[in-house]
Amino acid sequence: MRRLSLSKLFICLGIFVCFSILNEVQAQKFPKPPTKPIVKGQIINKESRPIPGATIIVEGTTTGTVSDINGFFQLDLTQFTEKQVTLVFGFVGTARKEMEVILKDLPKSYGQIKLKDAAF
């Protein structure tokens, strides 16, 4: 009888140790992987139609991109160390639009960005 209760004690102790180890592993905080400062969105006109070929440029630089056939764009701002940059959106026949982007808030999608007709 003593032998049986001793083996039960070792089994219970083993189970306790296993759960303790699993609990420690799950409780560890793993840091979030670094993210890239990427800006995304879609350029549309006043009728909410996509504008393919619209330009998106970081003001004062030559860094930029062009919207695709559906008006979508994605711009990687990894090279910038400032707290914020200004994006300039444009297309032939539309008014220029500027938007301040805070780099620490990225990655972020700005949804649809509407360009108004230019006043001639």
From TrEMBL:
InterPro entries: CarboxyPept-like_regulatory. Gene3D superfamilies: Carboxypeptidase-like, regulatory domain (2.60.40.1120). It comes from the Bacteria. This is CarboxypepD_reg-like domain-containing protein.
